[in-house]
Each structure stands twice: as structure tokens, then as C-alpha cells.
Amino acid sequence: MSTETAQDLHRGAPSGTPLLHADDLYAGYLPGINILQGCSLVLHPGELVGIIGPNGAGKSTLLKALFGLVNIREGSLTLKGEDITNKRADVLVRKGVGFVPQTNNVFPSLTIEENLQMGVFQTPKQFAKRVDAVFDMFPELGKRRRQRAGALSGGERQMVAMGRALMAEPSVLLLDEPSAGLSPVRQDEAFLRTRRINKAGVSVVIVEQNARRCLQICDRAYVLDQGRNAYSGPGRELMNDPKVIELYLGTLAADVEAEEAQATEVVGAVEAEETGTLGDLDAQRAVVDSSDEPVIIDDADPIEPEHAVDGGETQPRDKE
Ligand SMILES: Nc1ncnc2c1ncn2[C@@H]1O[C@H](COP(=O)(O)OP(=O)(O)OP(=O)(O)O)[C@@H](O)[C@H]1O
């Protein structure tokens, strides 16, 4: 069971039927070993919900369980009230769930455009309908649509992966550490992009190591510890909660003051973007884009190789 009481579990969540509801999940990779030990989460329409916690807490495992990539042994998962426990990923995509993995998230030998086509391979006619909207959201990709994804930087690949998931017009988008392996400026861009996607009407669950940034952009967040819910609540409240700071935030920020200063810029940029004015981040972006410095990770050189191993048990799943 969770270490939080039932009434605290989804503190700050709107009322009504959640879009996505994970209830008391037990799940794991190896027989007899549960990584998730009673995890719960709700996502309501329009929300941006974060999952944070220490290394190995089970954040990515929870996200994979939500997308049918890790077998759920106990507990239930519903989408708009419909049971989707252990449905296959392709079934979930058809039902409006998108997933962006942390690593190995593009087809490197395919062009940007072909990568986007892969996002709608089950419904190819959708390509023509959606591609312009996705390129509008990521204009940098539109300009380079015939370039192979393998030649892109880490941040650009992240955009391709998000764009591919958005091709299917998901109502729920599951993002696994979109800032992983990126420089600080590119990380901020990834958070802005996430917020922008959410503001465009997509409900988002985001797993993040960068807990402060995550809490800044999220409506609510869940702190996981050892496969269980430890704390939850509105992002801003958790940021100022002494227990959360002591246990998770204090150790994650080497230089809290510098973090805070930079954080103010991100919030400023988010707010400026929402009011249609330019924020500091645009100026930073211009500087970065004009430099020749390559950015960041390569599929062949993942920052956290253990995460490159996807998947779960090969137990039988539902077929639809
Ligand atoms: N494919 C796998 N096979 C077996 N064990 C795995 C697999 N993936 C993850 N694990 C184990 O599950 C546990 C939780 O890992 P998970 O990646 O979910 O944690 P996390 O909270 O996302 O960590 P991090 O912040 O370091 O990314 C770890 O002990 C990890 O070793």
C-alpha cells in the first residue's frame, strides 16, 4: 500500500472522472520482484502531472506500466473509466495514449518526416492531416524534414520523438525524462515545449530527474520512493514542502541559489510565452543556436545505459 493516506493521495486533483487512473499498481520485470509496490496516480483532462523521486524509485517503471510495457501484476488502470490494465502499447495508441521514451526514441536511419510517419503507421491517412500541425509546433523540424534523424542533436531528437507521438493526436502523453542528457538551456526548452504541448490541450504525465523544474511546470506531482507514493500535491506546494526539500530537492540541487535564479527565468519564459511576449529563454536560445557547439546525447552513447533496456516480462497480454 501507499505510504500516503487515501485522502492525501491525489491532493489538489480536480473532481470528476480522471482521464487516466492508476490504482494501487504492483509491477516489475523479474518474477517475484515488484518494482512498483502499490503506486497510484490520477490524470485529469488538461492536467500536467509530474512524477519525481530518487534514482531507482520506479518512476520510469510506472510510466512503462501505464503504456503496457511492464506487466501489471496487481491493481488497475483505467482510461476515461475503461479498464486498460495490461493492454498492449499499440492498442493504447489507438485509444489516444502517446509515449515518448527517454532514449532510443527515434529511428536514426529514417528522415524526420519518415519518423513522423511511423507515429501514424496504424492510420496512414492521418499523416497528411497532422503533419503541418506538428511542424507548426516544431518549426525547426519542418525546415529539415528530409534530414536523417540520426544526424540530429539530442534536443532535436527529443522534438522528433514528441512530434511522432503527437501525430496520433493523443489525449494523454507520457514523457520519460525529456530533459535527460541535455544542456541546461536545452533542458529549459524541453520543459517549455512540454508546457506548450499541454497548453495545446494534451494531458501530460512527465517523469523527471530535474525535480525542481518539473515541479515548476506541473499542476500536480507525485513523489515516488521505493515503488510507493511518498508525497503528492500541487507542484508549487511540493517545492516549498520542507519534507520534500529535505528528502528530494535539497540533494538534487547542488547550488540551490543558482537553481532558483535560473528557475525564475524559466517561469518568466513560460509566463511570457503564455502572454505572447518573449522571455529570456528566447534570447538564450538565440545564443545557443548561433553557436556551433553540438548538443548533447547520441543513441549510441546514452547517459544512463540501464534505461536503454526497455521492456518487461513476456507474459501474455490482452489482445484486441
Ligand atoms: N528492464 C529492466 N529489467 C530489470 N530491472 C529493471 C529494468 N528497468 C529498470 N529496472 C529496475 O527497476 C528499478 C526502478 O527503475 P526505474 O528506471 O523505474 O527507476 P527511476 O525512478 O526511473 O530511476 P532513475 O531516476 O534513475 O531513472 C531499478 O532498480 C532498476 O534497476
UniProtKB/TrEMBL annotation:
<feature type="compositionally biased region" description="Acidic residues">
    <location>
        <begin position="290"/>
        <end position="303"/>
    </location>
</feature>
<dbReference type="GO" id="GO:0016887">
    <property type="term" value="F:ATP hydrolysis activity"/>
</dbReference>
<feature type="domain" description="ABC transporter">
    <location>
        <begin position="20"/>
        <end position="251"/>
    </location>
</feature>
<keyword id="KW-0547">Nucleotide-binding</keyword>
<dbReference type="InterPro" id="IPR017871">
    <property type="entry name" value="ABC_transporter-like_CS"/>
</dbReference>
<keyword id="KW-0813">Transport</keyword>
<dbReference type="InterPro" id="IPR052156">
    <property type="entry name" value="BCAA_Transport_ATP-bd_LivF"/>
</dbReference>
<feature type="region of interest" description="Disordered">
    <location>
        <begin position="290"/>
        <end position="320"/>
    </location>
</feature>
<dbReference type="InterPro" id="IPR027417">
    <property type="entry name" value="P-loop_NTPase"/>
</dbReference>
<dbReference type="GO" id="GO:0005524">
    <property type="term" value="F:ATP binding"/>
</dbReference>
<dbReference type="GO" id="GO:0015807">
    <property type="term" value="P:L-amino acid transport"/>
</dbReference>
<dbReference type="GO" id="GO:0015658">
    <property type="term" value="F:branched-chain amino acid transmembrane transporter activity"/>
</dbReference>
<dbReference type="InterPro" id="IPR003593">
    <property type="entry name" value="AAA+_ATPase"/>
</dbReference>
<dbReference type="InterPro" id="IPR003439">
    <property type="entry name" value="ABC_transporter-like_ATP-bd"/>
</dbReference>
<keyword id="KW-0029">Amino-acid transport</keyword>
<keyword id="KW-0067">ATP-binding</keyword>
<comment type="similarity">
    <text>Belongs to the ABC transporter superfamily.</text>
</comment>
<protein>
    <submittedName>
        <fullName>Branched-chain amino acid transport system ATP-binding protein</fullName>
    </submittedName>
</protein>
<dbReference type="Pfam" id="PF00005">
    <property type="entry name" value="ABC_tran"/>
</dbReference>
<feature type="compositionally biased region" description="Basic and acidic residues">
    <location>
        <begin position="304"/>
        <end position="320"/>
    </location>
</feature>
